[in-house]
Structures are given as C-alpha cells and as structure tokens.
Amino acid sequence: MPEDVAPAGSPPPAIDVHARVEPGTVAILDQLARWDLTSVETIRRSYAAVAAPPAPPRPSVTRHDEKIVGVDGRPDVAVRWYRPAGFDIAAEAPLPCLLWLHGGAYIMGNLDENDDRLDRMVIELGCAVVSVDWRLAPEHPYPAGLDDAETVWRQLADDPAAYGVDPARLVLGGASAGAGLAAALCLRLRDLGRAQPALQLLIYPMLDDRELTPSIRAIEDPGHWGLWHLRANRLSWEAYLGGLEGDDVPPTAAPSRATDLTGLAPAYLCVGDVDAFVDENVDYAARLSRAGVPTELHVYPGVIHGGFGAVPRTPRTAQLLRDVYAALGLAFATAT
C-alpha cells in the first residue's frame, strides 16, 4: 500500500461536487436520475438510461463489423473496424492502428458507444481503429474479456498484412475497465514473452479491486449523483473476479496488484481529479515510472469519470481529448 494511503477503515473525505466538478458537467448531472446500485442488473439499466444513441457513420470513415478467429481454442471475437473511407488493404501502405477496449466496469458496454469518438480518431490521425466486443461479467468472468483482447491482439500482431495495419505502430488502449484490460494485457504479453504495443493508452483505468485509496472510498454516499460509486465498483469487481479473493486475484485481473512493472510498453494515463480512480491511477503511473517504463500522466481538475465518449462540453474535458489525440499521434509517429 502506498505510504500516503489511509487505512481501509478510515472515513472517506467528503466531496463537494458543486465546488469540485466543472460547472458545465454539474449542469448536466443535475438533470440525471440517481443510479440504482442494488445489483449488476440495476446498474446496467441505469447505465442504459443515460447512454447516448449510436452515432451515424461519417462519410470519410468506413465502419466494418467482422469476427476475429479465436486462438488457442477460444471463441471467435466480434470487432468493429474504423478505417479511412476507400482504404484498400491490398493496395495501400499499412496504417497505424489502435486496438480499442470499451469501458463499462467489466459488466457493461458495447461496440456502439464509442463510434463517434473512434470515427474522429480516424479522421484526425489517419489511422485504423479496431474496437473489441469483449465478453462481459458476470456471465463471463475473468479471464474471458482479457482472453478476447489477447485473441485480437495476437491476430493483428501475427498477420498485420491481412488487416492493413503496421505492426510497429500498434497501440493498445481503452477507457475505464477497457483500460484496465489494456494494462492487464500488457502484463500478460510480457509474461508470455510477446512483443509489447507501441503505447498502452490508459484513460481513467479501472485497476484495483481492493478499495485501498481515499478516492475510491470517497464516493459512498447515496446522495452523490453522476459519480462512479463505491457500491457499484464493488459489485462490478465481484462480478468480474467470479469468486477470486485476496491473494488469489492475479495482476492480470487487477493490474494494481502487480509488484513487477518492468518490461511494459510506454504508458499514457489520464484521469480527472474528481474520479474515484484518481489515486490508483496516480500510484500506478508512479510505479510504472519507477520500473523504468516511459510514463506520461495527466490529471484534470474538475473532470469526473466517463468523459471520453461524451461530447466535450467543458474546457478540461476538451483538453483531455486533445491530449489523447496528441499522445496517439506521437506514438504513431515515433514508432515508424
């Protein structure tokens, strides 16, 4: 446990949401109903009630759904490709590529929710993106989602020409639980002796099941609305871990448990300072850096969890997105 982390039994510090969160975000949150945190199913229904409708395709981007053949006896994995319109895999130079893992606390999420954001990445960076429809808990607990991510990664890395991607410019990234899967996959790839991505892009990653930090324990008042809540976090981890507890939880399930972070891909982490994951994210970034991993960390004042896929209505959220695009662009450029 980091030296500055309070014992788990300590009372959580209060969060004055109206004072801490960007005003434009507060105005939106004030209009939302409180989530029902009774069970995984009620959390899913609450999430569905606020999810944005699927974004219509942009003329300059081609979206294509397909199945990636499973490896090592695993099932096939559904993915959605985003490429510049008219791109010819057989005739054109391979593209830099982001393998994207959507968020959703390991229990929610789908291929539709980041369509608009991933379209914009293709337009702004001239890259390809492949978004993975990884299996969700509790129906498919650990390691099902991680296995799906590894399947897609291995197929791209082993046969990049078939997908029109440049193996030297493959980035692995995600948001929230998807970023947790990305971090876990980097650990697994290292342990398997396989090549690392050009960058692990970790957007407010969900890394730690242990409820050790003040920030994860700060939001446990049912009156808090719109912020990722300790009760929901606990239910989600229980669903994902499928009965694993304590020392039986491996680092490839909860990456913050890893004691050895050497040999991993360069890392980019970003998180808001009104995010339940801020403490575990800052600690993970610091430990990556101490392990010799080139690490960039951004913490945004007033930003809550979950802003990556939303319309950037506030200055800090817009800055977060600009910085993510810049990090991707740099990774694609320096890996050539």
Automatic annotation (TrEMBL):
Keywords of the record: Hydrolase
Coiled-coil boundaries: none
Domain of life: Bacteria
Keyword flag Zinc: no
Name of one Pfam family that matches: Abhydrolase_3
Start and end residues of each Alpha/beta hydrolase fold-3 domain: 98-306
One MF annotation (Gene Ontology) recorded for this entry: hydrolase activity
InterPro entries: AB_hydrolase_3, AB_hydrolase_fold, GDXG_lipolytic_enzyme
Name of the protein in question: Alpha/beta hydrolase
Organism, scientific name: Frankia nepalensis
